[in-house]
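hi! just following up on the protien thing from before. the input was this:
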Amino acid sequence: MASPHIIPAVYLSLIIERTMNIKKYLFTILFITISILLMNCSTPKENKTLIESKIPPGHAKIVGVITEIEPVSDRTKLSDPCSKVPCIALVKVSSAVYGAAFPSFSKDEEVRIQFLFTLEITTKELFPNMEESYPGLKVDQEFTALVAHIENIDQTAPKFQIHGYETN
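and the predicted 3d structure came back as:
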């Protein structure tokens, strides 16, 4: 006949062992859940600045590289700076963050964009009343800018416009 003290001790050790296994199991589940949540909440550092700023509807903030600058095509509007210096370029878009109602770009897509303050250095001769200044852009130069999507009736005009930019 078994001793009355042995059965409860074995039973007690089984309960302790199961409790330890349940604690390990719950700790593992908690650790995995927190890890997954932290990984999903983090963003790459370079895109974080683009995401943090608010993008207005019909706009996108892009990082792009000038691949080609179109020569001046219409020299008839003497008061227009774009009749004196180039304003249209092909831009290879390397990254973009979109506002509402903006068509998305494909990765490394080349897009024809009009620079309203030209691709040249902003001077008092071109813009007598302008206080801001831009250094100008050349082929293979990278920049960051807010791009506006414009619906034009004229199919030859670019559908995208940039007012200002920052060189990288």
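The longest strand covers residues 59-69.
Residues 44-50 have pLDDT under 50 and may be disordered.
cheers
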